[in-house]
């Protein structure tokens, strides 16, 4: 019988997932700007601002594995945790450290384990360190800041796999986190199929506009002919 111990046998979080269509769409060379446009078209706002890419170079998409930290006090001691041993392959680690820039909750040792476990990437509302080490292995990290001081003895892991808030955006465990050089978009898990469909529509439209412009058409004409001005409006009959 196969072991279920995630410490020795990482489980592919995408296996049997209902919304892998979103992952497949993005792997077809769609960027996060197009995903954000699709969210706009459906009346959704999951754009995370204020974080920047520190390492890695690929578009990252995967279900959120959420963590929340809080400051250590005399009555609430604790550790930064060994959570990485529980993160499934394909997931994106999302850390709510309340924007704290005075201590790190991620370093290259954790990046090494994450990469070995095929974790997709990490998003931190807070700081990380050892950036050069993570960059050398091309592991993808987005964070608000860098800080050489460890979180040990300063913050503690307060919750795992519970809803967190990243720069004002609520992230539920299993929501789809999409991130690239332009930014981060969080797609609610229950809307991933609709977002994937809208991405197809917008991507096809933008390719038609680009082809028309390359063929010599004025940009205004190419946009008007292909519905660009309705970019944020669902197609007729669609249900947001």
- The N- and C-terminal alpha carbons lie at a distance of 44 Å
* Major sheet: 9 strands, mixed
The shape, in one word, is elongated
> If you average the pLDDT, what whole number results?
86
Q: Spell out the helices and strands N to C.
A: HHEEEEHEHEEEEEEHH
Structural category is: alpha/beta
Low-confidence stretches: 1-18, 235-240
Q: Would you count the extended β strands for me?
A: 11
Helix content: 25-40%
Q: DSSP strand (E) fraction?
A: 25-35%
Number of helices: 6
If you compute it from the alpha carbons, what radius of gyration comes out, rounded to the nearest whole angstrom? 20 Å
Please describe what this structure looks like.
This protein has helices at residues 20-27, 32-41, 108-116, 131-136, 192-214, 219-225; strands at 47-48, 52-55, 60-71, 92-104, 121-128, 141-146, 155-160, 164-166, 169-171, 176-180, 183-187. By secondary structure, it is α/β, with parallel strands linked by helices. Helix 1 (20-27) runs parallel beside helix 5 and helix 5 (192-214) packs across helix 6.
Comma- or semicolon-separated keywords:
single chain, 240 residues, alpha/beta, nine-stranded mixed sheet, two-stranded antiparallel ribbon, 6 helices, 11 strands, 28% strand, elongated, disordered N terminus
Q: What would a concise description of this structure say?
A:
With 240 residues, this protein is α/β, with parallel strands linked by helices. The protein has helices at residues 20-27, 32-41, 108-116, 131-136, 192-214, 219-225, and strands spanning 47-48, 52-55, 60-71, 92-104, 121-128, 141-146, 155-160, 164-166, 169-171, 176-180, 183-187.
């Amino acid at each position: 019988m196969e072991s279920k111990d995630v410490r020795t046998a990482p489980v592919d979080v995408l296996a049997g997932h209902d919304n892998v269509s979103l992952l497949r769409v993005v792997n077809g060379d769609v960027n996060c700007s197009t995903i954000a446009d699709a969210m706009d078209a459906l009346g959704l706002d999951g754009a995370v601002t204020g974080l920047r890419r520190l390492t890695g170079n690929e578009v990252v998409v995967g279900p959120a594995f959420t963590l929340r930290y809080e400051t250590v006090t005399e009555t609430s001691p604790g550790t930064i945790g060994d959570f990485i041993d529980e993160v499934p392959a394909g997931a994106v680690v999302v850390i709510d450290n309340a924007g704290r820039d005075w201590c790190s909750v991620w370093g290259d040792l954790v990046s090494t384990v994450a990469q070995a476990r095929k974790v997709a990437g990490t998003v931190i509302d807070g700081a990380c360190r050892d950036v050069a080490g993570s960059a050398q292995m091309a592991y993808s990290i987005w964070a608000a800041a860098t800080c050489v001081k460890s979180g040990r003895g300063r913050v503690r892991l307060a919750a795992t796999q519970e809803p967190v808030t990243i720069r004002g955006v609520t992230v539920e465990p299993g929501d789809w986190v999409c991130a690239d050089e332009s930014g981060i978009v969080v797609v609610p898990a229950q809307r991933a199929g609709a977002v994937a469909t809208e991405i197809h529509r917008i991507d096809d439209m933008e390719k038609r506009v680009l082809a028309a412009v390359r063929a010599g058409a004025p940009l205004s004409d190419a946009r008007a002919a292909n519905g660009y001005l309705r970019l944020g409006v669902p197609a007729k009959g669609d249900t947001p």
